[in-house]
Heme-NO-binding protein (Roseateles asaccharophilus), 186 residues
Amino acid sequence: MYGLVNRAVRDLVVSLRGEPGWQRIRERAGCPDEEFLSMQTYPDELTYRLVGAASEELGLPASQVLHAFGEHWILYTAQKGYGDLLDGFGHSTREFLSRLNDMHGRVETVFSEMSMPYFELQDHPSGEPERFVLLYQSQRPGLSAFVVGLLHGLAKRFGETIEVSQTDDRSQGAAADRFEIRIQHG
Ligand code: HEM
């Protein structure tokens, strides 16, 4: 993954445990880099090791670390460097998600070696307007909790509250991770 992602992991850890916490996680993960260059690609394995080490250091399951990382990514990382991009692709969680592939396509013009995830938005089978379905496909395993965190971060950004439940799981053999999302009103 691009260094931008590892920088964001570092940033999250520093905000929770300070610089000494980051040094412990870096050592635990056998990570030689003190800093990451946003525009350089690093092996995916390093990112997974950092998440694993953060999970041990914080005493939380990796899924909770990924969830926190997803929220942090939207509310801080993307907000800081890519606020215009976030503003330009929608004014609600649903609208933004319907254009997420286009948005990552725009990002890919700069991060040309990125391996883009693919998302598909569908109406919910119930037809209820406040509910919808999101399918997530990727070349990478194990990131569904990251997606859930990203979704909660997006909703917070748009002043919405959402409920998310995962109904299909690629790690259990499904073709795509499938999430049912409900926007809560009032
Ligand atoms: C301005 C906002 C955003 C920017 C700049 C951005 C950019 C990126 C970049 C650079 C990567 C790394 C890809 C690589 O190194 O191969 C990535 C990965 C990813 N992004 Fe985004 N992204 C944004 C918002 C979102 C949102 C809102 C979602 C979902 C709700 C999302 C879902 C993902 C996922 C799941 C990955 C992991 C890659 C994978 O599954 O293979 N991103 N994004």
